[in-house]
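User: These chains co-purify. Model them together.
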Amino acid sequence: MPFSFPKLIIVCGHYGTGKTNLSLNLAHRLRSEGKSVTLVDLDVVNPYFRSSDYTKELESLGIHVLAPGGAGTTLDIPALPASIFSVFDTDADHVIFDTGGDDAGVTALGRFSGRIKEAGDYAMLYVINQYRVLTTTAQEAASLLPEIEAASRLKATGLVNNSHMSRQTTAADVLASVPFADEVSRLTGLPVLFTTAPPAAAGSLAGRIGNILEAQIYVKFPWENS
Amino acid sequence: MKGNEALAEAAIQAGCRHFFGYPITPQTEVAAYMAKRMPKIGGTYLQAESEVAAINMVLGAASAGVRALTSSSSPGISLKTEGISYIAGSDLPCVIINVQRGGPGLGGIQPSQADYWQATRAPGHGDLHVLVFAPSTVQEMVDLVMDAFDMADLYRMPAMILADGALGQMMEPVEIKERPKRDLPEKTWAANGHENKRPHNIVNSLYLTPGDLEALVKERFERYDRIKSKEQRSESYMADDAEFIVVAYGASSRVCKSAVKAARAEGIKVGLIRPITLWPFPTDAIQEAAKTTKHFLTVEMSMGQMVDDVRLAVNGAAPVSFFGHTGGIIPSPAEVLGEIKKLAGGAK
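Assistant: Joint model of the two components:
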């Protein structure tokens, strides 16, 4: 892991920047390092492509998943289970909160802001993606942060440069996003904690970009499963 | 881009500056994207008080000769059918997007293809058709929205993009290419102010003299016949030497492609025909394939609707089976492979 995480990790950002895929990567990675991990799916805004879609697979790896009531069923409603409060009392090594997109998506997180602050140290990762429509300039990407911080009643602690083109991401794409990430960093005053890259590209980027996190694609289309 | 955003951006690139909509999962991003983009480019984004109001605003805008768009998902499209019929009856071009979800009624919010009959058989009351395009990738969503606007203008009729929640919500890289401008007829019929330079135009769908109405509908059906002979579109995948043909469109065609590939790896001679236009249905391609195909399999996210058109095209030349899921469930490649194996096993 290119970065040392506190117990509470919050993943937030613009709708469609790759928050869920990043959350799944962090969960898998921390678990493979032998840590106990709980993944909390707080996305009650959009019922498509959520981390709770992967509950079965995650639980089989020993990653505990807490999801909105009835997720993935016809009773899918924007209600959060009370069991989420248990994460503040467990001795899990890491709790990852995968939030919904934009300020609307972190409103549910605001409910827990008091407990999160009480818990002390937390990492709130603001995910940016230069190749994501409507956030392709640093100004656009930075402008959403105050709204997200206001809605969540929490302050972001760092940026994750998750600039990608899905399955077509090349090392050159990642490299070309560095000035963008640096500019968002300048505008927001937040450090770039790490940059994600597909495994095939990560090797050639080592030494050229500090703190690379090899990111697998866990969020799959239905026709990619067998 | 997300599929829904790609649909919206493609419409803007096609010159659409008038969007009238109403939110509904899983198409809301079309409206959300338009709300952000339209004011910046001098366009109109209007969230109507209902789907019925939105389609009637499209009727008004289209009457004035501009490119107008509305989008919704299944229950909302049902509400729009009255307006769609009026638009077709007034010979107006427009584009309607349906990002389908499970039905009937409020149904569910997961992807579905159960509005095939509605789109191709009865998108409104009366004798009418609308052009129906079925994208299967986010890139194709872009391309077909542009085609839909052109074809709607060319034939003076509504065009529908029949997508589904999976395509609307999924993300794929897209390229929005500059396209050569198509030579389209001038909209001399538009009710956009005559400035005392020409007689005034009237846009109307009410004809109380039966003979007049019949003549008009007959002219429209001659147009429909021209469209059926000229505008059928489909994609063939590994179909050249195929003994078995899978027919599927949209998201389910991608599942089928995976299944066909897997079956080929096991030595089964199977191919895929993917309708790109659902109306006009690619009857010719299926008819041609029927000459050499032992068995057809239609796969849909419904109880079996397009299978009717496949059977009409095959016209008894070969058996046509159906496999599908409904209610928001996408068939898996393994399930479709299993169905292909059943056909192949049965034929030996």
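The mean pLDDT of chain A is 91.
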